[in-house]
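Lab meeting, item 3. Inverse folding demo.
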């Protein structure tokens, strides 16, 4: 009995009848070979015709999966070249915005070139605008392109400045609404329009930021000025200075100046309110300027605190050469009376050259070597 029970336990397990037939060897090969479909023709087109890297082309190719021929991409490339864009510029545009190859030339691209030319941009400038900022070719003509180009042409005042800043920034990225809100916020600070326009022309990115970042910048100005608002005429330059100098760098420069001069935070704040652009100089150069003004020009710490504009003057191209020229005059016995060296380094260039170089170049010919700026201005 025990043996029969054991035999039954070891007997093969009975499986239910098959519901489906076994897959054929052919079916098995479909799942095991890992065969890939050949790449879409646009992948090779993007590499050979448009200059994209194989990786970039492979990434962009799925957008063109519905195309059966290169007719539309060919038309787009031909149109862009017909507008004065060089081959390299066309390739750069396609690399930035591959989907432009799907555009309808007559309905989408041509009206954009026509629109910017209607604003007074010459053919070459119109082409360069789109080469510098290809995303503009995706903008609606009336909703985005024209308002943004018009805004900057009006504010910057010339096509030359428009092109200059397009080459350096994403000038056309920001909506006119955002830019106008930022301008309004700055006007509410009491900044005159003329000063505001001048600052934006020097650095358009001042208004190319979110309102939150602009408010933070205004807060930094208030802190740097010690809670005392700068004059309306200087407020823009305080904003301009701190927009270009990060908070950490500003604090380091403040520490360098206060240590070199032995001045208080309140005195430094007063210096910044009157001549904020001195913070553009590196820390080491600020220390060198303080030492030169104190030791060579004879201007004490108090004089520098009262005249912070001195720290904005070039040491190697202005202050040092002028001091050498005046010392040369004194060494030759030229009577220049009691010349105040602070006045010497502050004089406008034309007045200094006339008063100290041209007037005495016959007596001291080496003046033109000591002050080569005079020769550069054609005053020999």
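The presenter then showed the designed sequence:
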């Amino acid at each position: 009995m025990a043996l029969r029970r054991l035999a039954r336990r070891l007997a093969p397990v009975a499986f239910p009848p098959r519901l489906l037939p076994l897959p054929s060897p052919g079916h098995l090969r479909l799942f095991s070979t890992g065969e890939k479909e050949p790449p879409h023709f646009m992948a090779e087109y993007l590499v050979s015709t448009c200059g994209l890297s194989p990786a970039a082309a492979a990434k962009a190719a799925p957008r063109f999966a519905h195309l059966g021929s290169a007719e539309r991409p060919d038309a787009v490339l031909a149109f862009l070249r017909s507008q004065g864009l060089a081959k390299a510029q066309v390739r750069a545009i396609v690399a930035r915005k591959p989907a432009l190859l799907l555009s309808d030339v007559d309905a989408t691209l041509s009206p954009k070139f026509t629109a910017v030319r209607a604003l007074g941009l010459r053919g070459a400038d119109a082409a360069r605008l789109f080469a510098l900022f290809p995303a503009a070719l995706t903008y609606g003509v009336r909703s985005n392109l024209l308002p943004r180009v018009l805004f900057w042409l009006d504010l910057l005042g010339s096509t030359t400045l428009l092109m200059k800043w397009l080459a350096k920034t994403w000038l056309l990225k920001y909506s006119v609404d955002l830019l106008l809100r930022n301008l309004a916020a700055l006007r509410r600070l009491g900044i005159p329009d003329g000063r505001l326009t001048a600052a934006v022309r020097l650095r358009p990115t001042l208004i190319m930021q979110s309102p939150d970042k602009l408010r933070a910048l205004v807060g930094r100005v208030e802190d740097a000025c010690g809670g005392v608002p700068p004059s309306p005429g200087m407020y823009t330059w305080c904003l301009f200075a701190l927009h270009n100098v990060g908070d950490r760098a500003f604090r380091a420069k403040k520490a360098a100046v206060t240590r070199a001069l032995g001045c208080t935070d309140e005195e430094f704040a007063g210096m910044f309110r009157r001549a904020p652009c001195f913070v553009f100089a590196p820390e080491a150069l600020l220390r060198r300027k303080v030492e030169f003004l104190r030791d060579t020009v004879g201007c004490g710490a108090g004089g520098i605190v009262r005249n912070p504009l001195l720290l904005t003057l070039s040491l190697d191209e202005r202050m040092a050469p002028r001091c050498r020229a005046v010392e040369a005059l004194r060494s030759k016995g030229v009577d220049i009376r009691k010349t105040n060296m602070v006045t010497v380094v502050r004089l406008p260039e034309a007045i200094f050259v006339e008063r100290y170089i041209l007037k005495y170049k016959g007596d001291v010919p080496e003046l033109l070597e000591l002050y080569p700026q005079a020769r550069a201005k054609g005053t020999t």
